[in-house]
Amino acid sequence: MTKTVLGRAAALAAATMIALTACGGAEETPQEDPAAVEKTTEEAPAEEPAEEPADDDTEIAEAGGASDAGGAEDPTGGENAVVEIGAEFTDEETGDVITVVSAVRDMPTEYYESVDNPDGEMVYLEVSVVPGDKFGGVLSQSSFYIDSDGELADYTGTADGEVAAAGYQYFDGAPRSEGEASGYVPVYVGTTSDVLTGSYIREEMKVLGSDTIVPEFSAEFEIPAA
Q1: What's this model's pTM, rounded to 2 decimal places?
Q2: Which of 130, 155, 187, 210 holds its CA 20 to 30 A away from the CA of 147?
Q3: Which DSSP category does 70 fall into?
Q4: pLDDT > 60? residue 100
Q5: Per-domain residue ranges for the chain?
Q6: What is the overall mean pLDDT for the chain?
Q7: Is 11 left (phi over 0), alpha (psi -120 to 50) or beta?
């Protein structure tokens, strides 16, 4: 497939404590009746024991529960695993420098293909791109692929909300006129394996207003086992 792109010159346009106080102040000590002093202690009325606080069934709720220590819940469910890649390649035709930094494997997903497919896996590719200055256009997230049992699986566009909810920055493409960009590209692999093969493919392009054809560029990288 051939894409049409603009030359660089044509592309530059874009957060009680309650104090208990006895009512009426301190109690005054009454004057002793001389007759009363002669009474035996046995005749004095028995002092009632202090009233026990009434039991109730109110439970004190402790944040997280005393038995659930361990910090806040992992928003990704604690199943994911980050693997380092560090693959860098340069598209000599365009001057673009593409780096696949890492991958987050085994990400929880509600992507429709995963519902009835226990053999699949959602992978987030962490990418960084530095566009060249020869042409206009966009370095697209759809240029990143992962091999899925012989088929190339590209980015899962409907998973951009999942990427953000998991705390990652979604890579939404990089206009060459805006310079360096980075983020995560979600790719759902229908058939996964311990080690995966990824690829970057920039399709053949035709320069707008001329007969110049920019040949396709592709490069492969390995995604290690989790």
Answers
A1: 0.66
A2: 130
A3: S
A4: yes
A5: 78-223
A6: 77
A7: alpha
